[in-house]
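Milestone M4 deliverable, item 7.
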Amino acid sequence: RGTPHSETICPTKDETVVHFLVRCPAHEPHRSILKERFIFHAKSVAKLLTDHGMIPQLMRYIDSTGRFKDTFGAGRK
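Output delivered:
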């Protein structure tokens, strides 16, 4: 189940995990963090969530979007 439109920065869709990680146009500039190193797997949610080598870049992507700043506070500088 996704987050309702009113609680997201993306007006195009409910924010599911798949939408946030690989489809949301609002986060496309940040997604380059994933694509620069893992170009072949950056669109695979299963790969993003299970490949230990991708976790650091996934966390950098999540931090760079600022999506969870209100929940978890500011990320590392």
